[in-house]
């Protein structure tokens, strides 16, 4: 298992609301008193259930649990961890994905139309 050391400078955009940057919170993504509180990002759009976490990628929360049917992962070409949407070029309709792992320079470009078609 890869040990994840989250970069401190990430500011992901929501994959459903590309104009919204997500806010950092700490959540228990699995129920139980002994489960850790993990850094997770939430969309600021009213009623948007989207979250981003460097282990799961993008996902929805349903009934206080990760809804695995809504996962979207863009794997990093260097370490295969789920990347986040770092920038959106609206003129060229391109999304830049970046790895959240400290010290990793993994990135990928994706056409906005492709990201919309693969979203859960």
Description:
- The strands form 2 sheets. This protein has a 5-stranded antiparallel β-sheet with strand order 1-2-3-4-5, with no helix packed on it. A 3-stranded antiparallel β-sheet has the order 6-7-8.
- The model is unreliable at 116-120 (pLDDT under 50).
- The longest helix is centred in the last third of the chain and has 7 residues, at 112-118.
- The protein has 120 residues and is mainly β.
- A hairpin with an 8-residue loop joins strand 7 and strand 8.
- The protein has one domain.
- It has one helix spanning 112-118, and strands at residues 22-27, 38-43, 50-53, 57-62, 65-72, 84-89, 94-98, 107-111.
Largest sheet: 5 strands, antiparallel
Helicity, as a percent range = under 10%
Report the average pLDDT across residues: 88
Which spans have pLDDT < 50 for at least 5 consecutive residues? 116-120
Task: Report the structural category.
Answer: mainly beta
Could you say how many structural domains there are in total?
1
Output the strand order for the largest sheet. Answer: 1-2-3-4-5
Radius of gyration equals: 14 Å
First CA to last CA: what distance? 26 Å
Shape: globular
Strand content: 35-45%
- The total of beta strands comes to 8
Helix and strand pattern: EEEEEEEEH
Number of helices: 1
């Amino acid at each position: 298992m890869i040990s994840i050391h989250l970069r401190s400078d990430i500011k992901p955009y929501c994959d459903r609301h590309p104009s919204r940057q997500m806010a950092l919170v700490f959540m228990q993504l699995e129920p139980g008193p002994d489960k850790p509180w993990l850094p997770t990002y939430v969309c600021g759009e009213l009623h948007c259930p989207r979250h981003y976490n460097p282990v799961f990628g993008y996902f929805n929360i349903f009934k206080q649990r990760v809804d695995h049917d809504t996962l979207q992962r863009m794997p990093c070409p260097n370490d295969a961890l789920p990347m986040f949407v770092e920038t959106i070029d609206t003129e060229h309709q391109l999304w830049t994905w970046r790895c959240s792992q400290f010290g990793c320079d993994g990135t990928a470009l994706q056409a906005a139309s492709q990201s919309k078609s693969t979203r859960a």
